[in-house]
Amino acid sequence: MQDNSQLTLPTVQDRVAALARPDKWFLGGLDGVVWAPPFPRWLHKPGFWDPVHLLHYELGPCFSVALLNADGREVALELEIRTSGHASRWRPGRVTARWQAHSGSLRATEDRRVRPGGLLESSWTLRPPTSGWLVAFTAQPLRSTTGVRVSEVGVTWVRTVTDRAGRELPVAMELSGEPGPAWQRIVASEGDASPDWGLSPFAEGSHVAPTAEPPREDVIGWSWIAVAVPVRRDRAMSLRMQLSPAIAATGGAHAPDSEPPTPTPPPISRVHETTDTLRPTRPWRSFFADFPAFSSGNPYLDRYFDYRIHGLGLNRIGNRWGNIRHPAIAEGPEYFHVPITYSAQCHMMEMRWRAGGQEAWGSILNFLDNQKEDGSLHGRLYGNHLERTDFYHANWGDAVLAVHRMQPDPARLASCYEGLSRYAGWLTRSRDPEDSGMFTVVNHFETGQEYMSRYMAVDPRADTAGWQPRLRLKSIDVTVYAYLLFRALGDIARELGRHGDESGWRARASRTGDAIRERMWSPEAGLFTDVDGRNFERTEVKAAVGFYPMLTDLVDGPRLGTMLDHLENPETFGTRYPVPSSSVDDPRFSAEGVWGGKRRNCPWNGRVWPMTTSHVIEGLLRCWGRGNGRAGALAAEMLTRFVRMMFTGGDAERPNCYEHYNPHTGRACHFRGIDDYQHSWVLDLLARGIAGLDIDHERAKVWPLPHGLPGVAMGPVRTRGHTVSVELTEDRATLIVDGQHYDGPRDHPLRVPWP
Q: Is the pTM of this model over 0.90?
């Protein structure tokens, strides 16, 4: 034991400030409302004119801001380009923009935020002091806008939006300001909707803007709404739009869908009640404070650890969305802004590092709450309906055990056991009726990995059938997931005292493990491959999912050595940036994502997907834990290259997380516009691989990968009722548990039982 620690880590304020940059605009309220337009058109205008998303529902325009002088004339503002060459600055939770009048005599600072409770806020300070009005104005389509009314604090109305399934959602909206409004205006108008005050009907003068609801007989055009607050000389002013969707749970598969009630606009100052543990005054700092700080001396690793926390917060969903009853993480912005099964396993791995593990447990409990009658699960969850939810396979067993190790909850574990037992029964009945121990994929979308040679090997039209169940592919990834699920259910049954169940799960796991070893290993490919469900012959197609058995205890020494050879071979999977989803020597391989002569949105025929790379590095990390030094060295090296890839132009101040990347150049799919896509578990890999911290019910352990970084620190981690921190020097490891310091050589596992 040591008496003192040299642990030095940045403060929460420093961590948030360190992420600041001029080229980002994504803002979220950490509750399901996110303003992250992929290709914004109006960043050069004040306010939020580009659309916002409430879960997957898109709503726009939002509102813009104009400054009027005492005579009611617009004071034209333009972005002020400072000596740094930038006019705005982003950091998690805020975008700060600098404006100046065309005359140059007046300057203004605008802070844009999305606050919890669906509140879009634009706050202003002006220098030098002046007089006049600051006006928030918007245009809402007449066809979908009703009930426009002047309120005590502004103007309210109801806007109905429609999702890709054709389901409608009424949203109560309110435009207001602080201090209270000096005047409000409402007018119907034809023409285009523009954030330019000079093009709005209000620029004509107040006599054309009566405060009355537009006529409903004519639904062509826009309902223009304006709320003005007086300019204050000594204090900031705020203009706000609040969104309150009417979402009620449908009851999953056990209750009929019902139309949501028409919402009533809430007072603008009220934030929706929630059981979330976020401080309402500083929610982003509160969110960051619940995660450990991380420092390694590598600027890419350090920045990415905290950037990952931002991405998780941006895509966080609170528990006020009908079918989504527990806090969880959405897969990404835009139409990905809902819980999705394929990425939920990733969120569980990462959110267990947040104190309490709320979202980690919620990421599976939401799906189990809405479990179908036959035991299967919806592929995605919509707050107000469960139509066109698709289906994806996921590694539920591993994820539940990982969460329970760090944030134990016996009641939640029991709920997961019941639901996952039903799911395992469905999986066995529907996807392995032959009792082969291998599990069938019926279309190329349900694995989350479309457009690959692995499907074409059993059906030359696999890439044209959409979601139709036409394949009979015994899939290596799904079979590994099933093996891990059966083993996990056996472990949980033992912990819950369900000893009669345990032996049955062990038998299922044994049958599936034997099938993986004996029927899915290909000596010719030097990798595990899928099996054709029609004739039970291996397809011999090399894909990155062939490494997934490294997640298990099924891979022996010679086979593992051959698999590691592939990861180092540039002619198969050893590309500059790891890991290509299909082997380089695959006849359909394309680093640019071209399939069938067309660049695809989601191609898996060679692009690097962080999801797959996380699986592979996780497998190497587990092999390292079982004593394979080569796997550990490769994991450390690949993890460093993996993180390095996710920085635009190699700039250490511009981290990103897109859906997929070029394996040779590292270029992201910028053409998709979907940044901050939470489809991997990088934070978890950094915590366990670089800092070396592993937690279970018996002890805390430190054993980092052989990465060679001389100084690494992480903490505090709040887990199992304890506080844990780690410090690594060049040759020593220190573990601090509840203030007690334990020391040992860095190249050997340091285990500390719980007090």
A: yes
